[in-house]
Write a structure and sequence with these properties.
mainly alpha; 6 helices; transmembrane helix
Length: about 140
């Protein structure tokens, strides 16, 4: 149940930030900051609202997943990819354990990995190479 809650949090954090960024026109940084601050503030002000595990981890998962929502619509144009990236982020977060302990930027790195995996899976599913790779190959040949 704890894992499912964090997976849902990751998907919600990525999607909410994506909507605030692109549809509410808040901008990437402001959308991530406002939403992450709000979730963190609620957990800080009401620590007994949820069990300690959730109070500790929900703000981290939400903030990390909000980095996914900062992605450009050119890179990730569908909500499905954003949700998949949020789920992938949560799964990596849950399974990384102490691997990233002591390293700065673990949430951002994990978010980047999640976006790359989701975009890669979408590219494989479409059976087309990623556009940037095609452009790079064209430049390299010239």
């Amino acid at each position: 149940m704890e894992s499912l809650t964090l997976i849902i949090t990751g998907a919600a954090g990525a999607t909410a930030t994506y909507v605030a960024n692109h549809h509410l026109r808040m901008g990437a940084v402001r959308a991530s900051a406002v939403l992450s601050f709000s979730v963190g503030l609620i957990m800080y002000l009401f620590p007994d609202l949820l069990p300690a595990y959730y109070t500790r981890n929900i703000p981290l998962v939400f903030m990390g997943a909000s980095f996914i929502g900062m992605v450009s619509q050119k890179v990730m144009g569908s909500f499905v990819l954003v949700i998949i990236s949020g789920v992938i982020f949560s799964l990596i977060y849950l399974n990384s354990g102490k691997f990233f302990a002591g390293f700065g930027g673990a949430l951002g790195t994990t978010a980047c990995i999640s976006v790359l995996v989701a975009v890669g899976l979408a590219s494989i599913q479409r059976s087309r190479p990623v556009q940037k790779v095609k452009q790079f190959r064209k430049r390299k040949q010239n």
